[in-house]
Amino acid sequence: MLLEACSLCYSVLYSSILAVLAGMVRLITHNLLACHAKGCTSNNFPLQFQDAAIELRDAEFNADFLRGFLPRIEWPALVGAARQLGDASLPAEQPEMLDDEFLQKLHHVLLEIHVEEGAMVCPNCKHVYPISNGIPNMLLAEHEIG
Amino acid sequence: MLTQYLFVFAQVHDEFRVPELLSISELYGFEIKFPENPEDKDTSRPFMILELESEEHARLLASRCILIKYVCEFYARGKSYDEIHERNRLRKPQWEKYIEDTSFKFLVTAFNHTIPQWRQKDVVESFSYMDFRGKIDMKNPDITLACFEEYPDKHGTTREKTEGDGEFDEVWFGRLIEVGLARPLVKKFDVKKRVYFGNTSMEAEMSLLMANQTLASPGKLVYDPFVGTGSIAYTTAHFGAFVFGSDIDGRQIRGKVKPPGIIRAAAQYGVANRIMDLCTFDVTQNPWRCGELFDAIVTDPPYGVRAGAKRLGRKNKRPPREGPLPVHVERPDDQPYVPPTKPYELSELARDLVLLARYMLKPRGRLVFFLPTVTEEYEELDVQAMLCEGMEIVANSLQNFGSWGRRLITIRKTTTKKFSPPTFDPAHAVTDNVDAHVPAHKDFREKYFQGFKKNDAIADSEARED
Ligand SMILES: C[S@@+](CC[C@H](N)C(=O)[O-])C[C@H]1O[C@@H](n2cnc3c(N)ncnc32)[C@H](O)[C@@H]1O
Ligand SMILES: [Zn+2]
After folding, report:
1. Mind telling me which InterPro entries this protein's record contains (chain B) (predicted)?
2. In the prediction, which pLDDT does B71 show?
3. Ligand 1 atom index nearest CA of B312
4. Residue B321 resides in a domain
């Protein structure tokens, strides 16, 4: 643990870590969120990225996690979002064989592409969910709640 | 074959001890046999003898349980040294392998007392019949023999430090296997040393106990829907899980400087890349596309004392407005629009949380959350009445603050049946259902601010608040 070393070098170490730190919105999250405005119940997924500023950051690889999560993923939405952000590494059809090469690609797309700024827009009602510092604001306005 | 191990626990959070042991044994897939005699499982005492299949299991417990101070291979206990020596002699088959050529040292210590140096020496000498021939090595011994004297709690009485020396209730002896390796985490996660925290931050020890109740481990995904400043996210991520956090109030997540506060504190603990994402939304108006996503949901729900429970909407419904919709007003904290909120009564919230968890958890997933309650009025039914089909209580541990307290509730999803997402419909509230059981935590906020007086003033205070 870098930060336990000593209290004097603390601030130095810490600021160097901050340089690579920010919020996120990983594509795994994007794949799980739908527009939930009042009455918006069809064609409300996937949200479309707008003015997305992206960053790539390493994440811990865990094959079991990926295998367990795959059934929850909407595949075409994931492939579409990745392509929108300039990553075309995933096949259009979800493969049946979950070999290591595929899992590595899936890992990269799901967990290592981060959208820092921009917005997600509902394809149906056009609600804009802004992303600031990697934190999407999914709050609804008063007239949008059920 | 089961072997007896002597466990020494920190004398805090008694009611959390057994649930924590059971959670960690479930996580690693082994069994613990607890003592049968009620006196021997009294959690107000620091000692407990547990039977396990292997020393490896004892080590696993010591590596994860926050409340464990020491684990020893158990040799003997007694009301006096005569008794303990007599019994320890009978245990020779267990320790004779160390006689010939094993370096060792003794640890002699007491609970609720300090043993003077000279008598510590006497104690060590009294074990000389074991005839250990290896060398004594105070720094790096092959084994440590541990002897613990247990004194009655003399709290609040004034006395000389060594007064009553030797008047212990019981003495315990064994070979030290492991010092509690998780206990130092309480210091590591100390809120005061954290780069980002707020007035809702949960203290380190509780955040760690909560993380253990979730069975957090690598490859799991855990959700805190009232993440606030993230206290529980850090400890859960520390044990390897991915964590997702959301809160109605983005300022809690972000703090005042960039990057967001939760990310800064997570980085301090080396777990920033295990924060899957953070998101601003009202959990009763949530954007989740589907259910069965999480291995656990862990949270400290708002109960109105420091962070009021809110939900989107207005207290008194306005007539639908005419004319244009509200424009987006830019605010200094760069939240484009902050919708109005109305209070969210605690018993309603608790019941909604259980329904949400049933929808969002994978089968066998756990919901772990704090339920504040009024000590005198609490009944077990309060918790039972929150449950729904497919959700079962695993643990319920009280942290007592006197007139009120909070219970850490652990619930397991026992069903594989699919359920629809909860409606969060206030119309089903406990409040309006005359036949429903009224739990002691109902209107907790109002009761708290009235000092838990038993009267009907609650309705009045509600009226006044408007
Ligand atoms: C007791 S605090 C949790 C504190 C957190 N454990 C921490 O370490 O700071 C409760 C949180 O719930 C949030 N909250 C209240 N009502 C909410 C709602 N309807 N949906 C989501 N979050 C809500 C509050 O903003 C507050 O941050
Ligand atoms: Zn929409």
Report:
1. DNA_methylase_N6_adenine_CS, RlmKL-like_Mtase, SAM-dependent_MTases_sf, TRMT11, TRMT11_N
2. 98
3. 19
4. no
Domain co-membership, B126 together with B261: no
- pTM to 2 decimals? 0.89
ipTM score assigned to the predicted complex: 0.87
Would you state the pLDDT for residue B373? 86
CA dist., res. A141 & res. B86, Å (int): 76
pLDDT tens-digit readout, B141-197: 999 999 999 999 877 776 677 789 999 999 999 999 999 999 999 999 999 999 999
Residue B202 Cβ < 6 Å to ligand 1? yes
Alpha carbon B226 to chain centroid distance?
Answer: 17
A2-144 CATH fold:
N-terminal domain of TfIIb (2.20.25)
pLDDT given for residue B454 in this prediction: 55
Q: Whose CA is nearest to atom 13 of ligand 1?
A: B226
* pLDDT tens-place string over residues B233-271: 999 999 999 999 999 999 999 999 989 999 999 999 999
Output the CA A41–ligand 2 centroid distance in Å. Answer: 7
Chain B residues with CB under 8 Å of A139 CB are 248, 280-282, 285, 312, 337-339
Q: Which two tokens stand for residue A92?
A: 């259009």
pLDDT band at residue B316 using 50, 70 and 90 as cut-offs? low
Based on its alpha-carbon atoms, the radius of gyration of chain A, rounded to whole angstroms, reads: 18
Q: How many domains are there within chain B?
A: 2
Distance A126 CA to ligand 2 centre (A): 6
Whether ligand 1 lies within 6 angstroms of the CB of B250 is answered as no
CB contact under 8 A, A139 and B272: no
Give domain status of residue B80, yes or no. Answer: yes
Residue-number span of the structural domain to which B380 is assigned: 188-314+338-448
Written as six digits, the tokens of A70 are 């795959």
Taking residues B442-461, report their average pLDDT: 65
Residues of chain A with C-beta less than 8 angstroms from the C-beta of B321:
143
SS3 B249: coil
Q: Are residues B165 and B273 in the same domain?
A: no
Query: Is residue B323 in some structural domain?
Result: no
Question: What local confidence, expressed as pLDDT, does residue A5 receive?
Answer: 36
Cβ–Cβ contact A62 with B under 8 A: yes
CA distance between the termini of chain A:
47
Q: From residue B256, how far is each of A60, A137, B201, B246, B261 by CA, in Å? A: 29, 17, 16, 18, 8
Out of B285, B313, B321, name the one closest to residue A36 (CB): B285
Query: Measured between beta carbons, which residues in chain B are less than 8 angstroms from residue A146?
Result: 285
Segment B338-376, tens digit of pLDDT: 667 777 788 888 999 999 999 999 999 999 999 988 888
Q: How much is the mean pLDDT over chain B?
A: 89
Q: Which residues contact B167 (CB under 8 A, 6 or more apart)?
A: B151
Considering only CB atoms, B290 lies closest to which of A21, A72, A141, namely A72
